[in-house]
């Protein structure tokens, strides 16, 4: 009997990293009946006669679990967006951030291709960087030059399990190739017709980079808010979450309620108008989804 971490799942096999190396395993026969599905990132107990013939016997309790991509025990998410081709989208970034916050992950925002910007566009990106840093987020700017910015990113990976997510076509696979030369992860050019790249990653795998593990995943294939209640949304906006305790009503949605600390802060210019606009947009989306499902 031994323990290890699942670092790859492919075609019904689970590849478990242990003291003896990576062991190819199958799930225990009764897992399906007990509705247990091992995930990449799981700490497991297994037994194996050799490196290609092991069985997972037990999956230890998870600290978190993502559905899309299917992975467990994640510490942080590297959210990769480009400044250009495709253009930076604060709306899409905020949508990702809500999902990251809802899963209690630490986000690290990476904006790539900044060297392609003219001076006016660069100032705009730098203003977004300052805005998100004021909220408390880490924002790193990188260029299309292979090693530019990589030294900034590597320290954030050490000792952590990270997922890489973000807009399609922004260079997530290229980033991983730069972080660990020799990976040779497949990358596709951006479609000029669609303005986005094709997903090139078809399975979930944890790659060892520095002293950390990074998941090369297909990313978040769904960014809807089905599992989020309207009253919980502001908890995924840190600048609102801090103020919510001072609202008169518990479960305040910061829309029409009296004596709302969040609305007061917004009126004073302490909350970004862009962030508030996105919050209200997401709130409407959640409410309309709930009406459909009810």
From TrEMBL:
Binding site for Zn(2+): 247, 252, 254, 260
GO molecular function term, any single one: metal ion binding
Source domain of life: Bacteria
Cofactor note: Binds 1 zinc ion per subunit.
Pfam family, one: RsgA_GTPase
Entry keyword Cytoplasm: yes
Protein name: Small ribosomal subunit biogenesis GTPase RsgA
Organism annotation: Halalkalibacter okhensis
Record gene name: rsgA
